[in-house]
Amino acid sequence: MGQIALPLGAGNGGPARIVVGNANSAALEAMAAAPAWPFRTAVLHGPPRSGKSLIARWFVEQELGEAIDDADKAGEVDLFHRWNRAQECGTPLLLVSGAEEGQWRIALPDLRSRIGAALHLAIGTPDEAMLADLLMLHAEQRGLALGADAAAYLVPRAERSHMGVERLVATIDRISLERKVAPTMTVWREALEQIMGPQEPRLL
Question: Which fold has domain 128-203?
Answer without folding.
Answer: Helicase, Ruva Protein; domain 3 (1.10.8)
